[in-house]
Amino acid sequence: MNKMKLETVEISINENSYNIEIGNNFLSEEILSDLIMKKEVLLVHEKKYTYFSS
Questions:
Q1: Residues contacting residue 20 through CB under 8 Å, at least 6 positions apart
Q2: For residue 30, what are the CA distances in angstroms to 9, 16, 34?
Q3: What does pLDDT average to over the chain?
Q4: What confidence category does residue 54 fall into, taking pLDDT thresholds of 50, 70 and 90?
Q5: Global confidence as pTM
Q6: I want to staple 40 with a disulfide (CB 3.0 to 4.6 A). Which of 17, 32, 46, 54 is the partner?
Q7: In sequence order, what are the beta bridge partners of 47?
């Protein structure tokens, strides 16, 4: 099993800021379902990493 890697990057645009989680092996079905229901998620999957924005 691959070890979990996670990094948070904060993007600030004018008065809005967004946290972007970059890593692998950190999304559970429960967390992803909750974010999708709240319409707070963008998920981009790449061979080595998953990019997650909420």
A1: 8, 9, 10, 11, 51, 52, 53
A2: 23, 27, 6
A3: 72
A4: low
A5: 0.44
A6: 54
A7: none
Residue 20 pLDDT > 60, yes or no? yes
Are the C-beta atoms of 44 and 23 separated by less than 8 Å? no
Provide the strand spans (E) within 1-54. Answer: 5-13, 16-24, 42-45, 50-53
The whole-angstrom separation of Cα 13 and Cα 39 is 20
Adjacency order of strands within the sheet including 42-45 = 5-13, 16-24, 50-53, 42-45
What local confidence, expressed as pLDDT, does residue 36 receive?
74
Return the structure tokens found at 50.
Answer: 């998953």
In angstroms, the CA 32 to CA 11 distance is 21
pLDDT of residue 17: 85
